[in-house]
Amino acid sequence: MSQHSTYHAYEPEKDSLCFPIHEACFKILTECLATEERQKVDKDVLYAVMQQNTENMARKLNLDYGTVEGADQFWECIAGEEGVAMDPTTKPGIEDVVKSKLPAQLFDRPVAQSHSLAHKVRDDPLTTLPYDVLHGVFAHLSLKDTLSLMKASWHVLESTRDPTFWRLMIRVHITNFFWELMDLLQTTTFPDTFDLKGMFQWLDQTTKGSFAMEGPMMAIANRRRIWDVCQQLAPLYYEKLHTDDYIDPPEAEAEAIVATAQVYHSAVTMFPIPAETKSVTTQLIRSWSEISYRACDFETYWTGQYGHLIGISVDFGSGKRVFGSTEGVPGQSLHIAAGDWIKEIRVFFRPIHERGKFDRENGEEVGPMDARSAGSSKDSGYGCELYLTWTIIT
Asked: Which of 41, 112, 245, 320 has its CA 20 to 30 A from that of 83?
């Protein structure tokens, strides 16, 4: 087995990460993230989102890439996974391939006569919703949630018997990544007995892809896999994209929080104790609504890659609120979702006489690469090493 190096980046003295991406994959990502107001991707926002969702050792993003076993620090070629290497760009003529592969039973299936069980339903609050409203709801649900709702309500199930519903399902769940199908649906006249529900189920299964898959649909299955990965980034991207619209709450709210805050001063842990000390205060939360309705980014800053902790900050979108200094090397960024907040920042002390067992030269890295550590004293006997941890609660 031969090896071929296509990309290499190792700069231990720099904190920046690189995210190489194929041009074809970036086009799909652009299709996924583009809006009417912003047709182009804001790469600075995208980089920040990707950096916050990077796995340990920065080998790949912490996302579900589908049924791929070969993705790791070194890409391993596994027989049966050839589909993930297929070009996912637009395939002219693929709609004709789809038409030729449609199962024959979809064309001649007789129209089913439904047996109404509505008289057996004792209470279904969804019966008050007309079909057009339900179809609007379905447009915002995942396929799994749609099927669950159909099982929970007879009225909902009845509303899905109309062929127009399954056209909607194909448009919402299939054509968003299989855009070549739009022409097929718009230009093809299907017989009255055509089973659009069966067509949706067939397309959904065919484009999911499978191990050792073959045939012309491999490229579409790979495009769907890439689209699903991009969809995981989309809500995080949109959330960070609109942080510029945020305005700090009024001073009165911030002052009210300070008035009820409990501050516990920690003892001095240095030896010898400096002649002069000063207290530093930073208000990270200026309104309770920030916790309930706003996401933020939590950052740490260090004197070097393996140095001392010199600052922390949170950013709700209007600028960083800093405790300490931001002039050092940034550590791993932590994204805190709306509704969550930091329960505690815990500091652990380790006697300096044990340092020989734990320092970097003996195999344990400290600094921003290991978010526990906040630095150490050099004075023998009375020093300590600080370890920073945090807990996020809902």
From this structure: 41
